[in-house]
Amino acid sequence: MASNIGMMDSAYFVGRSEILCWINSTLQLNLSKVEEACSGAVHCQLMDSVHPGMVPMHKVNFDAKNEYEMIQNYKVLQDVFNKLKITKHIEVSKLVKGRPLDNLEFMQWMKRYCDSVNGGLVNYNPLERREACKGGKEASKKCPQSQASSKGSTAAPKVQSSHNARRNDVSSSNQSVKASKPSCPVPAYDEQITELKLSVDSLEKERDFYFAKLRDIEILCQSPGIENLPVVAAMKRILYSTDDDASVLAEAQAMVSLHQKEAEYLSPIAEVSTEEKENSDPQKRKNIVNLGVDAVGISTLSPRQRLSDATDVRCSGSPLMTY
Questions:
Q1: Residues 92, 74: contact at Cβ < 8 Å?
Q2: Where do the H-state alpha helices sit in the chain?
Q3: What tens digit of pLDDT does each residue of 91-127 get?
Q4: What is the pLDDT of residues 280-321, one digit of tens each?
């Protein structure tokens, strides 16, 4: 289904001119830019063309100029999507701004969907259906007026004489040449302006994407548990730097390395190597065994031996003995 197509689908590579030709031929309009359909009324009638009677055309406003009026049209479109169980998300806040890139992408999706339903129109009268809409008659008058004027210009030479017809042909040809001179560069400038707008929109999207990432990092650095860590301080130094100097990164790295050196200098007693542990363990065992043997030996002495030991100590002049 067209509602599940990805951004790399061929539908999103359809050109702007092809989209405009499809809209104008389907609905008998005279749009010159895709963003002119940002009101949502064109989208509603396109859905009405492939699903006749599904769209309440009396609720569609072709004369919508303000955002709140355009939002009402998109609400009608969203109701139709819900009835047809179409899961396509409508980014109303972006479409009503009239940005060329957003409107082009959504209209590319609309063309893909309409082509997937029936491959074209069957006995659909867009002018008649548009009469029920608010401002639909004014939108329909733009195209027939140009057709009527062209028909009147071709019928006039038939009434006049051949001489007047030649004169009119010459004058009309001169006028067409004069008119063609200023009109030639206008489409070229319009195309360049549209391309520049598309590039600006893409750059703004990329800017917003990376700004959101940096904002997430800033919020993480402000967490109470880690905001005082040296690594977090170094990250803040980079985030809040106002200049483009490369020394900012060096300063941040120096902050981290300095903390590592201080941690090593202020660290507790160094861990004893495994070899020293192995050498010290037997010595500890020997001392413990000797102490145990001495204690046992003293406890096994007889009272006479203990008295003789004390006498030896007194004779030796030990300061511990009192007379």
A1: yes
A2: 16-27, 41-50, 67-84, 92-95, 100-117, 126-130, 136-159, 162-183, 185-221, 230-239, 247-265, 274-300, 303-315
A3: 999 999 998 999 999 999 998 888 888 765 567 888 9
A4: 556 655 555 555 555 555 555 555 555 555 455 444 454 444
Mean pLDDT of 242-252: 78
By the 10 Å C-beta count (0-12 exposed, 13-18 middle, 19+ buried), 233 is classed as middle
Distance between CA atoms of residues 275 and 262, nearest Å: 28
**How far is C-alpha 164 from the geometric centre of its chain's CA atoms?**
65
Output phi, psi for 294, to 5 deg: -60, -40
What are 198's two structure tokens? Answer: 């598309």
For residues 309 and 177, give the distance between their C-alpha atoms in angstroms, rounded to a whole number: 140
- pTM, two decimal places: 0.47
- Enumerate domains of the chain plus CATH numbers: 2-143 (1.10.418.10), 202-265 (1.20.5)
- Which among 157, 183, 182 is positioned nearest to 169, based on CA atoms? 157
Phi/psi for 243 (5° steps) reads -110, 165
Q: And the tokens for 314?
A: 């007194």
Please give the single-letter amino acid code of residue 38. Answer: C
Task: Match 């139709």 to its residue by tokens.
Answer: 80
Phi, psi of 61 (to 5 degrees): -120, 105
Please give the C-alpha separations between residue 239 and each of 203, 205, 214, 229, 317, in angstroms, as whole numbers. Answer: 21, 21, 8, 15, 80
Decide: 97 and 38 in contact? Cβ < 8 Å: yes
Which 3 state secondary structure label does DSSP give 88? coil
Sign of the four-CA dihedral 166, 172, 173, 178? positive
Kindly state the tokens that stand for 98. 């009239």
> What are the tokens at 204?
């703004």
